[in-house]
Each structure stands twice: as C-alpha cells, then as structure tokens.
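Protein Record: Sequence and Backbone Structure Tokens
======================================================
Tokens: labelled as protein backbone structure tokens, with as many entries as the chain has residues.
Question of interest: how does this chain fold, as expressed in backbone structure tokens?

___
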Amino acid sequence: MRKVAVKQAGLLHAGKVDEANKLTTKEMQDQFKAMPAKDREMMTGMAKMMTPDEATFAATIKASGVLVVDGTSAKLTTKTTTKDANGSSTETTTQSFMLDGATCLVSR
C-alpha cells in the first residue's frame, strides 16, 4: 500500500491525474470521468498543488505512517508537525485503500 500511495502522490504532484487515477478503484475513476471538464481541471490543479512529491511523502510515511488493515479495506494515516516563529501546527492525512487479492487500489 505504501508503494501505491507514494506512486499516486508523485503522479498527482506532477499533474499526471489520468495516470494517478489508474491507481484508484473503478468507482473513483468513473466519478472523476463524470465530472464536468472545468471541475476535473480544478481538481487536477488542487491535487498538483497540495500533494507532496514521492520522496517527501515516502519520508512522511516512514516517520509517522500508521496502516490499519480490516479485511479488504485499509487506511494509511500520516501526521506532519510544522514549527515556526508563530508556533506549531499538525496536519493529518488519511488515504483509504481497497484490497483484492494482490491488487491494492486507492479508494474513498
């Protein structure tokens, strides 16, 4: 799952949403395709801007990642704390996965 999550993050960060969507469930792919073009474009821009590159995300997973598997579902949660002159803040991200045999896909 780590490999899928890191690969998808790298693709999203690079703006390669169509390639990143191939790592998602059919349901998520269909939902994205059903969006109006302007919404897909907005989502692509947001994903590129907000998603870390592969190396950064891999380091975050290594430092704080917690994976919980429950049957054919899994959740990967990471926490990143940032400190500066104004104080500190913590960002938590959660990624869901569906497992089907040897296949692992990003899900909602």
Observations:
- The helical segments are 2-13, 17-21, 26-34, 37-50, 54-64.
- Strands lie at 66-70, 73-84, 87-100, 103-107.
- The longest strand covers residues 87-100.
